[in-house]
Amino acid sequence: MRDILKPFHPARDTGQASRRGRRTVIAAAAVATSAAVAASAFAVSARAATAEAARPQVTAGPGHWVQVTPKGTENIADVGLARGSDGVLHVLWATQAVAHQKIMDTPLSPKGAPGKTATIASGLWIASYPDATVTPSGLYVLWNGDKTGNPNSPKGTFWATRPLKGGAWKLGGNVPPVLGAPDTTTSETATTGGDGKPWISYTDTDALVVLHLGQKEAKIAPTQCCVYYPGMATDGKSGVTWLGYYSNITGRQGLFLQKLSKNAASGKAARLPGSVTGGNSLAPEQRIALTGRGKGRGGVFVLYGAGYPTYKSLDLIAAGAAKPVKLATFSGFTEEVAGDTIAAGPDGRLWATWWYGNGTSPKLFVRATTKATNTAFGKTVTVPLPAGTNTIWKVYTSAQAGRLDVVALLSRGSNIAYWATQVPLPK
User: Fold this and answer.
1) How many domains does the chain have?
2) pLDDT tens for residues 67-125?
3) Which of 57, 102, 350, 355 is least buried, going by the fewest C-beta atoms within 10 A?
4) 403: domain CATH number?
């Protein structure tokens, strides 16, 4: 059932050119393997894969990688990141056992060491990949799905919360799906609005759905097939929340940025400059990279690749601005960018991350602003990868003062899992 219900993910190429090294969904056998070991970040057997299992001592921090999810993680799996006031980074992820899914939390200490994996929700008939956000009242993890698969089963958006410091996860309620949108969807994306309540978005074949927690789900334009990979962020000064998404709708391709208000769109979506070339565009393969700069600081920033049939540059644009800033340029298929992401530190400093793939040998790069309040970036550093890495599928990041936590979905040989490291502020 999981393979049938799994959300469709488009190819990167929406034009006629052929892309090398296309990503494929892993086989059902690998999914079953993932489910057998999902409860432990270092599981090597079903017996070891319990949240209570003793965790071996590992070396963490800059220059070291630690495994976060089990081998057999799907190569399309997204995770959510949320950091508590104690500095602990919670990595939220979903297992993939048919009719027995779980939402899990693997915490990483401020120095990057993994803690004991906890089960937040279990026995779920189906659940999307979760996202997470930090609110003034605590951490939220949110996902979409169907609790039991029975006719009267709770469906829609679910959540759980925990205190900002310490404590344990507590299951919340659910918001039923909007009419015409399914209860089993692509990954959630989440952020915290100016009122301190979570915003959530997801997509389906003919639907772009938003939810401001406390209200009902709502469809916003476009309502054609298809839009993908939504990302969200909030301006810490104005309190305005923005939604980014990728569209492959004929005549409306590219990356778009939409302002939100209450529980609906505000004004028209704007297409990001350079995201379409000659009517062709490249789709990202994870949430659109958006970030604000934290409470009291203005601006929402989008990091994205521009160009076709490969990205020619990595651009940064502020919401509402007309022109982007170029952070890097690339030489075609010899430097083929496979993805990017962005995060802001507690001081407002921006951290840009991107990586090579799709036929180019995998490499991971990080660049940060020289000051906490500007958009002038310092030097680019290359982050060493774990031995045997042959593919970088996805990367999500969370910034601390003076360092960046990098959580990357990697293939090492035939095994796929999320791994984590830390990158010091480049000097």
Assistant:
1) 1
2) 999 999 999 999 999 999 999 999 999 998 777 899 999 999 999 999 999 999 999 99
3) 57
4) 2.130.10.10
Task: Please state the φ and ψ torsions of residue 301, each to the nearest 5 degrees.
Answer: -125, 140
C-alpha closest to that of 290 among 346, 365, 341: 341
pLDDT per residue as tens digits for the range 399-411:
999 999 999 999 9
- Its pTM stands at 0.88
Rounded Cα–Cα distance for residues 162 and 403 (Å): 25
Site of tokens 């189906």: 126
How many angstroms separate the CA atoms of 321 and 18, rounded?
Answer: 33
Locate 124 and state its tokens. 């779920």
Full residue range of the structural domain in which residue 243 is found: 2-424
Contact 133, 188 (CB under 8 A): no
Whole-number Å distance between alpha carbons of 190 and 211 = 9
DSSP per residue, 149-214: -STT--EEEEEEEE-SSS---EEEEEEPPPTTS-SS-S--EEEE-TTS-EEEEEEETTEEEEEEBT
What's the rounded Cα separation, in Å, for the pair 90 and 107? 4
User: Rounded distance, CA 287 to CA 394, Å?
Assistant: 9
For residue 96, what are its two tokens?
Answer: 């993939």
Residues 6 or more apart in contact with residue 18 via CB below 8 angstroms: none
> Which amino acid, one-letter code, is at 214?
G
Overall average pLDDT of the 116-145 stretch: 96
Q: Which of 200, 209, 224, 223 is nearest to 130 (CA)?
A: 200
